[in-house]
UniProtKB/TrEMBL annotation:
Residue spans of biased composition, Polar residues class: 106-125
Species, as recorded: Vibrio lentus
Positions of the L,D-TPase catalytic domain: 144-280
The keyword Signal is assigned to this record: yes
Protein name: L,D-TPase catalytic domain-containing protein
Length: 281
């Protein structure tokens, strides 16, 4: 009995220690190793690489398109080698800064037909292009003078000293000589101006000539005559059924200058009001 009590106490103490250790082990949080991020990091890097590769690929395609377009444009403008006096330069792949002396020198060299080329590793491609202004249809440029040669039945449109258009004309029934009075059927000679378009006319479109001038009036008054007037450049008479080529084969007006309707359209399109007209035999 004496041994039983101490043994029981010992067993109770040991059981208490075992229980305490077990509880402590159960209550203590266990460290759980987080799942490896190695795989996700690798996938993200691969995705970024694909995006970068796509951007580079698209940029390469765009650069190729721009290069080919510029080349095609240059070839279309000129089928021959660039002339030495070309004035236009196309820059592809970069923008020239107006304040850059180096860029200005490059432009100057190219515009003078220089054979120098940019470095092969340059991001810029330069192309000499012929001066487009010199290729514009001269008819679209400003007419500075209308000249009528009565003896040749021709009208010439000038831009400065260059003829840009020529028309066949018909004159008054008495074509030779300067108009002096009303009813003489002559076309005036001398320097005049085209002053306005006549909307109401018996002919297909009309442009008025500012005859008579002071000298014409003085001569007519001195001889007790009317100088006449209403001198125009006009098309075929309204209602005319005969062919324009036949009508224009002889002088049929009362002193005006006649064009075919088609030529009259072109004349009004090209010549501004106020343009001087010189008429001579």
């Amino acid at each position: 009995m004496r041994l039983f009590l101490p043994l029981s106490l010992c067993l109770l103490f040991v059981s208490s220690l075992v229980y305490s250790a077990t509880s402590s082990a159960t209550d203590t949080p266990q460290y759980v190793k987080p799942p490896s991020t190695q795989k996700s990091v690798t996938q993200k890097s691969e995705a970024q690489k694909l995006v970068v590769d796509k951007i580079v690929s698209d940029a390469t395609v765009i650069e190729t398109i721009v290069f080919e377009s510029a080349t095609s444009h240059a070839q279309a403008l000129s089928t021959s080698p660039t002339s030495a006096n070309s004035n236009n330069v196309i820059v592809v792949g970069d923008v020239l800064e107006s304040g850059s002396d180096d860029n200005k020198n490059k432009v100057a060299q190219l515009s003078q037909g220089s054979s120098k080329r940019p470095p092969q590793n340059s991001s810029q491609q330069f192309y000499n292009v012929p001066n487009i202004a010199s290729q514009i249809d001269p008819l679209l440029q400003v007419v500075t003078l209308v000249k009528v040669d009565k003896s040749k039945r021709r009208m010439y449109l000038f831009k400065d000293d260059e003829v840009v258009q020529e028309f066949r004309i018909a004159l008054g029934k008495q074509p030779k000589g300067h108009k002096r009075f009303e009813g003489d059927n002559r076309t005036p000679e001398g320097q005049y101006k085209l002053d306005y378009i006549m909307e109401e006319s018996d002919f297909y479109r009309s442009v008025h000539i500012n005859y008579p001038q002071s000298a014409d009036k003085e001569w007519a008054e001195k001889h007790d005559l009317s100088p006449g007037g209403n001198i125009k450049i006009h098309g075929i008479k309204n209602g005319e059924r005969r062919s324009p080529s036949f009508i224009q084969s002889f002088d049929w007006t009362d002193g005006c200058i006649a064009l075919t309707n088609q030529d009259m359209d072109a004349f009004i399109e090209l010549v501004k009001m106020g343009t001087p007209i010189h008429i001579e035999w």
